[in-house]
Amino acid sequence: MDRSKLYRRFRTLLIANRGEIAARVIRTARAMGLRTVAVYSEADRDAMHVALADEAVLLGPARARDSYLNVDRLIEAAKKTGAEAVHPGYGFLSENAEFAQACYDAGLVFVGPTADMMNAMGSKSGSKALMEKAGVPLVPGYHGDAQDDATLAKAADKVGFPILVKASAGGGGRGMRIVRSAEELAPAIVSAKREAKAAFGDDRMLIEKYVDNPRHIEVQIVGDSHGNLLSLFERECTLQRRHQKVIEEAPSPTLNPAQRETVCAAARKAAGAVNYVGAGTIEFVSDGKDVFFIEMNTRLQVEHPVTELITGIDLVEWQLRVAFGEALPLKQDEIRLNGHAVEARVYAENPTKNFMPSVGRISTWRLPAEGGGLRIDAGYREGDSVSPYYDAMLAKMIAWAPTREVAIERLNRGLEESDVRGIVTNIPFLSALMTHPKVRTNAIDTGFIERELAVLTQASQVPGELELCAAVAAVINGEQQAAQSEANSPWQTFGWQPVGRRQRRFAFRVGHGPEQQVVLNYGSGPSTLVIGERELAFSIVAKDGGFDLTLDGVKSSVAAVITGHELYLRTRNGRFDLHWVDPFGGETEEQTGADKIAAPLPGTVVAVLAEEGAKLEKGAPILTLEVMKMEQTLRAPYAGVLTSIKCKVGDIVQEGVELAVVEPSNE
Ligand code: ADP
User: Fold this and answer.
1) pLDDT tops 90 at residue 393
2) Residue 27 designated active-site
3) Which pLDDT band holds residue 5 (cuts at 50, 70, 90)?
4) Is the pLDDT reported for residue 497 higher than 60?
């Protein structure tokens, strides 16, 4: 194929993706003077990437296969807007050779490798055969064509247990099973094949030696259409959950300079085997000593920013320049490694509920400002909705510093300063990871998160003295703000002092934990707070998003959000979720009791099984929800009359939302 036809200068770029990566590509494309075209589904009409682009084209309904995976609609969108090139981002069609070919056939530049290169590297088996020939070290295993049970069983036996059964077409950890003994093999193959068939339409399997307690190391490479190929150092992505990366860093803290050079040379050899053009990643597993090739990704990766921060290279800019047909601007020995970068993936999910995705509207989106070594690649803004149709990654937070220790510290501070509300996020979990001593000392392997899950997902911490005082301050601050509109309110300033001393009692609890009491003394003289035997001098000064709290002469900044009786605080000790037990607020068990007919988790209403006005026995079914592809029926908590049903079939409901009301009968 004539490469001058494949790669040439263009002025308008269509980004065939959504979320943070679409926003990220638009940012660089625009800086390079290109016109940008976004595409979107019906669920993404108001999405951030649509707002950022110069033009945007509706592809179709929310489901990915009707929109972001619809090749014809994408090509049509390019034609309609005069786009001359397509950037596929990651995920969706980014590694789909037919899409790359369809772009070429339609006269568009595909920002990435050719369909032939993708075909050669796209399947794990095919790429392994190639790597074997090129002399790149592989994990021992079987990647042949024969797929019958006997062949696979014999291969597994030869490799020796434990082994990994992997879908050749696999990605995202799907179609992959660890098998520890011969008896487990047959059922594992059946279920891995079923998953692979459903996910990729291809159920070919390969078998690999399972490297125990491995690390994941990968090398960024970039090739141009003039035969130049560079490696941009390695990343380590060992912190994974269910084979999906959670934290990535560059360079790998595990490799010494000699090992670094070995793995980068192996990666260049691997990419060189297909004369690779574009940005790509060669992935390896390592037992800490040697590295073994596992697969190549023929696209930009989620974690590319850590490489950008240690090399100072904008990888999207390089992708676009390669697509223009330019030669790479640097030589291998001009690529320098500077400092250390760490990235955390911020997801809309609930780590304390088995990482269940969380959908809904983002009511608060406060992330720290970029700068000072912090970078944020976000795909969402305040007011945006997270829909159940796509990957739930909201943003990436990336920190750079001269050393790994400081980069981790900066990242953690960025996480601690973030406040995202309306949906549940994994931010506290990420923060727990970044502060884990074993992460700090790099004493990790790919099974680390699973083993430490209980520690990493600990429910809200127990508040100490500072937090209890901050909770009182948050309540008072909230009341002052509410009173601000009322003229002549005595609460307008906290300095208002009636004659004599007054007391006010507060009680707070975490979840269903015990109540903790605080007494506020105010009136003439300085205000104090009493907790148990301790009495502390106390004052507050309100500021944006919280207040400065001074306790016995020590001032600290506290972020606070108060919604009804629920308090969210961030102090120097971390994050705290507290419930204010208000003696005058009409606190009743009804509000929190188990009698409420509410969605236990976010889900979809799939059936309504009773009618309004019906008399129900205790335990009678009322409606069925589908939660994570599993059905769950909500039942009457006691005998009574179903006075109202607050949802209909097809509704997507948030966790905790009341769906029906049963009035208990008196009999
Ligand atoms: P996918 O394409 O589905 O992401 P990969 O082949 O990239 O699958 O593997 C995903 C993760 O699984 C790797 O990052 C690594 O942690 C683990 N893994 C893959 N192969 C092996 C192996 N042979 N031994 C141990 N762990 C492995």
Assistant:
1) yes
2) no
3) confident
4) no
Atom of ligand 1 lying closest to residue 175 CA: 3
Whether 308 and 407 share a structural domain: yes
Dist CA 622 CA 659 (whole Å): 10
Task: Strand 640-645: give its sheet, edge to edge.
Answer: 597-598, 658-664, 640-645, 615-616
For residue 239, give Cα distances in angstroms to 405, 408, 424.
Answer: 16, 14, 21
For 447, phi then psi, to 5°, come to -90, 0
Q: Are residues 478 and 557 in the same domain?
A: yes
User: Range with the lowest mean pLDDT among 240-249, 374-383, 573-582?
Assistant: 573-582
642 vs 636: CA distance, rounded Å: 8
Catalytic residue among 73, 299, 345, 410: 299
Examine the pLDDT at 165 and tell me if it is beyond 80: yes
Q: Domains in the chain: how many in total?
A: 5
Mutation pick for ligand 1 pocket among 128, 294, 295 (CB with most ligand atoms within 8 Å): 294
Q: Confidence class of residue 4 from pLDDT cuts 50, 70 and 90?
A: low
Q: What is the CATH number of the domain that holds 659?
A: 2.40.50.100
Regarding whether 220 and 352 lie in a shared domain, the answer is yes
CATH number of domain containing 488: 3.30.700.30
Q: Are residues 343 and 276 in the same domain?
A: yes
Q: Cα of 162 to ligand 1 centre, how many Å?
A: 14
Q: Where are the alpha helices (DSSP H) in 394-503?
A: 404-416, 427-435, 437-440, 448-451, 453-456, 465-483
Contact by Cβ (8 Å): 469, 529:
yes
Atom of ligand 1 minimally distant from the CA of 176: 3
Question: Does the beta carbon of 214 sit less than 6 angstroms from any atom of ligand 1?
Answer: yes
At 123, list the tokens: 């399947």
> Do 364 and 313 share a domain, yes or no?
yes
**Ligand 1 contacts CB of residue 283 (under 6 A):** yes
pTM, entire model? 0.80
Distance CA 24, CA 305 (A): 10
What is the Å distance from ligand 1's center to 216 Cα?
Answer: 8
Cα 294 to ligand 1 centroid, rounded to whole Å: 7
Q: How many residues does the chain have?
A: 667
Ligand 1 centroid to residue 355 C-alpha, Å: 20
- Is the confidence at residue 201, as pLDDT, over 90? no
Which residue has the CA at smallest separation from atom 22 of ligand 1?
210
Q: Which segments of 32-88 does DSSP mark as H helices, in order?
A: 48-52, 71-81
SS (H, E, C) 511-574: CCCCCEEEEEEEECCCCEEEECCEEEEEEEEEECCEEEEEECCEEEEEEEEEECCEEEEEECCE
Strands 615-616 and 534-543: unpaired
If you write DSSP's letter for every residue of 341-363 in order, what string do you get?
EEEEEEESEEGGGTTEE--EE--
Supply the range of the domain harboring residue 377. 215-456
Residue nearest to atom 10 of ligand 1 (CA): 243
Contact 658, 629 (CB under 8 A): no
Residue 303 CB less than 6 A away from ligand 1? no
SS3 for 262?
Answer: helix
Q: What is Dmax (Cα atoms) for the chain?
A: 91
Point out the ligand 1 atom lying closest to the alpha carbon of residue 141.
Answer: 23
Q: Are residues 548 and 633 in the same domain?
A: no
* CB 445 near ligand 1, within 6 Å: no
Q: What is the DSSP string of 618-656?
A: TT-EEEEEEETTEEEEEE-SSSEEEEEE---TT-EE-TT
In this structure, the residue with its CA closest to atom 14 of ligand 1 is 216
Domain termination site, one of 179, 209, 239: 209
